[in-house]
Amino acid sequence: MLTDLTSKKANRNQFDRRTALTAIACISAFPMLAQAQNFPSKAIRLVVPAPAGSGPDIDIRQISNNLSALLGQPVLVENRPGAGGRLAIDAVLKSTDGHTFYVGTPGVTTMATLYPRLGFDPRRDLVPVSLVSVTNFTLTINAQLPAMRVAEYIKLAQSDNKFANFGTFGSGSINHLRAAQFAQMSGFQAHYIHYSTSSPFTDLASGQISAMFCAMLPVAAQVKAGRLRTLATSGKTRHPMMPEVPTFRELGLTDFDPQVWIGLLAPIQTPTEAVKKMSSAMAQVARMAETISQRQAVGSESVGSTPQEFEAYLEMERFQLTATIQKLGLTLE
């Protein structure tokens, strides 16, 4: 009898606890539901992991006014440079207002692998919203090197790795990792010269370094002047800025399509409806003639993807670059 009463009491307590937890969960969800239904109900905050005047900052500021006009609320751009994007992500993850977004760059896909002691995981803690734009990467070499084509450069680097000195913007940067991926798949040993304060382009033009993976715009003038030579570029088709340069795809490197990109991501607790509305607005802005023209002027392509398309893009890049990092045995503090 005592056992029955104890069991009934335990069951009743368990039921009461479940009911209370359910009630708390429902009450806690009300603010988020309200945010989703009313999104945007206040200013939208876009946190950029780079300083004012940088590429990602300029790109996102160029579209912020049109985003604001579509969404009916101010769009504020906030710069949080430093620590390879970790400071900006940390600031975004601490926000619970449903109106804060991270302006992601390729570091999103490599951060968790490069920094084993990272206190968060972008893959777990951020949800893709939209791929905003992509910028083709080129393989550009010093024009004095005896190589007019990618295949000739690969043979040159295989024969003597003094021709495989690649400039980068730092250990673990996208320039570094794409150069390493290219060297690994091409079968030569590369050396990497990491620049943090000075520009590698001056040394590339003078022959202090041999090659670099970089965007078109920073090297266009030197290529035109004959000091640099661009051997190939990423993308499905040739870019109008350099129509004479073949794509890696044309050259048979179908699994190698290095790009720089910017995209919007949100904290995982951001309501789905808010993510959908933001993605839809971004897609509309991306299709505007003004946006397309601005992107083409700097060698980029306006995208404005769905969250699902952006997620697939991130997963492919994460897969490729994680393998490259592991082969390098690279970890950072």
Task: Give a short summary of the structure.
The chain is an alpha/beta fold and 333 residues long.
Describe the structure in your own words.
This protein has 333 residues and is an alpha/beta fold. It has two domains: 163 residues, D-Maltodextrin-Binding Protein, domain 2 (3-Layer(aba) Sandwich), CATH 3.40.190; 98 residues, Periplasmic binding protein-like II (D-Maltodextrin-Binding Protein, domain 2, 3-Layer(aba) Sandwich), CATH 3.40.190.10. Helix content is 47%, strand content 19%. The strands form two sheets. Strands 1, 2, 3, 4, 7, 8, 9 and 10 form an eight-stranded mixed β-sheet that branches. A two-stranded parallel sheet has the order 5-6. Helix 2 crosses helix 10, helix 4 crosses helix 12 and helix 7 packs across helix 12. The longest helix has 37 residues. The chain starts with a helix and ends in a 5-residue tail after the last helix. The N terminus is likely disordered.
